[in-house]
From TrEMBL:
Residues 90-345 form the AB hydrolase-1 domain. Signal peptide: none annotated. This is AB hydrolase-1 domain-containing protein. Pfam families: Abhydrolase_1 (PF00561). It comes from the Eukaryota. The lineage of its organism: Eukaryota, Viridiplantae, Streptophyta, Embryophyta, Tracheophyta.
Length: 364
């Protein structure tokens, strides 16, 4: 009970900077620091080594992969029209628990009509892509760039991200903007610690999360080195998103998750995503997304390409009020709010076709 009842006092580091971010009670931040120090001296809570695909004892390699400059491999999956016949070439960044096989779910007819080639990839540590112990927002963007270059997508290409995978899109807009012909984000996860958010608004929204999610994000931000240990303790409040128990206010979202859990799809996706280790996939996602970024997306200059953002107003995982605020701060973001819609946007009928027509400037 002691971890659920601390007073809501502002994170002293953030308050001193006058920034947003959220909602770590000062006693909680101090407690996490002390706990991390104690664990490093006694328990030494290191995650188990990854079971790297293609190595002895690791899962087999069954997907196409390419080798990056640092020696890692990225697994990928192509869809749409053949690469050499495409007018538009897109790199797709999957979300939390996702894989290279995810996409915007546009129809093949529209892909052929527009001439769209799309490549999804297992982000580092997911599926059959090698783990990256130095994974960051920047490395995610550079993985996108290196994948595009290895496949010969040209000097400029499009990027689409969904949910937590949108950190790679923000990274691309910051680190490689001149390579991006256009960008789309679908229900992008936000970091409550981005300085551009008003502190009071971020705190109010943060406090509406389940207690376990509040603590999982605090650990991810302040003490990422103990996240694996924290998440494995049944007596501590941990992420309902990882567990698949987050309350979902949107009826379609709730039905989708219920059906996935009933028919085994939820567990299959989890096993595929985490086969090299849950720390290398889910937990690194959490520490990258909710950790300390090198830049604030709300401080980005206008990029040399159009940027579109879709958000449901009944999203139970990404607060629509923070997305509205972000879009209001960035006049160059084309914001599309979807009424009566939740978080799982790829399942919204016809939306994948709309996304492609919109970012390529084609009307129905």
């Amino acid at each position: 009970m002691w971890v659920t009842s601390m007073p809501q006092v502002w994170d002293e580091e953030v308050a001193a900077k006058g920034g947003s971010a959220a909602v770590t009670p000062a006693p909680a931040a101090a407690m996490l620091g002390s706990l991390a120090g104690w664990l490093s001296r006694t328990v030494q809570p290191q995650p188990p080594p990854p079971r790297v695909c293609g190595t002895e004892g690791g899962p087999p390699v069954t997907a196409p992969r390419l080798r990056l400059r640092d020696g890692r491999h990225l697994a990928y999956c192509e869809s749409g029209v053949p690469r050499d016949q495409a007018r538009f070439k897109v790199v797709f960044s999957h979300g939390f628990t996702g894989s290279r096989e995810d996409s915007v779910r546009a129809s093949q007819e529209v892909a052929e009509e527009l001439g769209v080639y799309m490549v999804g990839f297992d982000r580092a540590g997911y599926g059959q892509s090698d783990p990256n112990p130095n994974r960051s927002v920047k490395s995610a963007a550079l993985d996108v760039e290196e994948l595009a270059d290895a496949l010969g997508l040209g000097s400029k290409f499009y990027v689409i991200g969904i949910s937590l995978g949108c950190h790679a899109v923000w990274g691309a807009l910051n680190y490689i903007p001149d390579r991006i012909a256009g960008a789309a984000m679908m229900a992008p996860v936000v970091n409550y610690w981005w300085p551009g958010f008003p502190a009071e608004l971020a705190a109010e929204v943060y406090a509406k999360q389940e207690v376990g999610d509040q603590w999982a994000l605090r650990v991810s931000h302040h003490e990422p080195g103990i996240l694996h240990w924290w998440m494995e303790q049944s007596w501590l409040p941990t992420s309902t998103v990882v567990a698949g128990t987050t309350p979902l206010p949107n009826a379609r979202d709730a039905e989708i998750r219920r059906n996935m859990q009933a028919d085994g799809t939820f567990q299959q996706k989890r096993e595929q995503a985490t086969q090299q280790g849950i720390h290398e996939s889910y937990y690194r996602d959490m520490t990258v997304m909710f950790g300390k970024w090198e830049f604030d997306p709300m401080a980005l200059p206008k990029p040399p390409c159009p940027v579109h953002l879709w958000q449901g107003d009944e999203d139970g995982l990404v607060p629509v009020v923070l997305q509205r605020y972000l879009a209001g701060k960035l006049a160059w973001v084309n914001y599309h709010e979807l009424p009566g819609t939740g978080h799982f946007l790829s399942a919204v009928p016809g939306l994948g076709d709309t996304v492609l027509r919109t970012i390529f400037g084609h009307k129905q």
